[in-house]
Amino acid sequence: MADNTRIKPDSGAGTIVVWTDDVSGVHVPGFKLVLGAMDADDGPVSATNPMPADVTALATFATSQETVTGTSGQIVASGLAGRRTISLKAHPDNTATIWISSVTPATDANSFPLDASESVEIDLSPGQAIYAIADSGSQTLCVMEVSP
User: Fold this and answer.
1) What is the pTM of this model?
2) Co-location of 68 and 139 in the same domain
3) For the CA atoms of the chain, what is the radius of gyration?
4) Number of domain units in the chain
5) Which residues of 70-107 are buried (b: 16+ CB within 10 A; e: fewer)?
6) CB atoms within 10 A of CB 39
7) 23, 38, 53: which is the final residue of a domain?
8) What is the pLDDT of residues 10-19, one digit of tens each?
9) pLDDT tens-digit series, residues 34-77
10) What's the domain range around 133?
11) In whole angstroms, what is the distance from residue 25 CA to residue 56 CA?
């Protein structure tokens, strides 16, 4: 079956051709992305005329390793200014679970568990505190804070 199809607008005489692709007898509509304001055409999107995108680069990030024990404590008490995201990874050599919480004291009942080599990324509001406690011993938590 041929590609494209004709449709009749609600008003006016005649038909117009609409771009379609015939897939097993079904006309699938095709679309072309163009740049520019309504009723303007600044050209089709292509490798030489790419879709504009505003990508915000990371302005700052900081890394550290925190020791987590059997006593609940705040992670990175003096956090990176303006931090928005924090990535936490339990060190591969850890021998016990670390529990992560936004409330203090962190306990296994109100927290998220991280076993050795597991990680979590948390979006934060400015100044939000994160707490941790270990099931036993001294465990290491790798931290990366990100600020826009």
Assistant:
1) 0.60
2) yes
3) 27
4) 2
5) eebbebbeebbeebbebebbbbeebebbbbbbeeeebe
6) 5
7) 53
8) 776 777 777 8
9) 777 777 777 777 888 888 887 766 668 889 999 999 999 999 87
10) 60-147
11) 44
